[in-house]
Amino acid sequence: MNKRDDLTEAATDYALAHGLIGLSLRPLAAELGTSDRMLIYHFGSKDELVAAVLEASNTRSMAHIDAMAPAGSLREAVLALWTTYTEDEQVQRCQRMYVEAAALGLLGREPYASSIKASNALWIRAVAAYLQRSGVTAKRAPGMANLIDATFNGVFLDRPLDDEAESRQIIEDLAQALD
Q1: Angle 145-149-152 (CA atoms, 0-180°, nearest 5)?
Q2: CA angle 17-68-91, nearest 5°?
Q3: Distance between CA atoms of 144 and 140, rounded to whole angstroms?
């Protein structure tokens, strides 16, 4: 890895712990043992740094999906994906950062809008590949991945308002309906 890659990984760890909203270069640089000017030197701008952090976070999440053992059915795959979403701390942290970036992107702020669009395409491919490994046809997998992702994101956003049993029941209903 080069210096920029090292800084990207360290900045991603920082953002996963502290969030993206209100991210300031000086505290980030101090935590990384460098200066805000050096961060700009390596990334060109704060926006480019944020884009690199979002890409690294997405890559980390996808690695967890890529490492999942195939499920025996679509229903089992949905439930296994939900378990990964809700019980894997690294994936949870990446999902929280995704939600922050998506909210800012929804307002048209860059680099969030472009980064989230790119992340979504890669994420759907990773979930579709997992579904295919679990026996879903190549033709059906992308549509199922989109439906699962949209449902998971909706439940994920509502989870602070719902109890865990209610969230789980929604996912059980989805898994049953898709199988």
Answers
A1: 140
A2: 15
A3: 6
Q: Cβ neighbours of residue 61 under 8 Å, at least 6 residues apart? A: 90, 91, 94, 95, 98, 123
CA neighbor of 175 nearest in space, from 69, 68, 72 = 72
Considering only CA atoms, give the Rg of the chain: 17
Q: Report whether 141 contacts 132 (CB < 8 A).
A: yes
d(CA 49, CA 42): 9
Contact in structure between 114 and 140 (CB atoms under 8 Å): no
**Cα separation of the two ends of the chain:** 43
Please choose, from the candidates 16, 177, 162, the residue with its C-alpha nearest in 3D space to the C-alpha of residue 93: 16
Domain extent at residue 101: 53-178
Instruction: Confirm whether 90 is domain-assigned.
Output: yes
Q: What is the CATH number of the domain that holds 139?
A: 1.10.357
Residues with pLDDT less than 50, the chain: none
Burial class (CB in 10 A: 0-12, 13-18, 19+), 1: exposed
25 domain-assigned: no
* Predicted local distance difference test score (pLDDT) of residue 105: 86
Whether 170 is in a domain gets the answer: yes
Give the pLDDT score at 160: 65
The answer to the question of residue 28 being in a domain is no
Regarding pTM above 0.85, the answer is yes
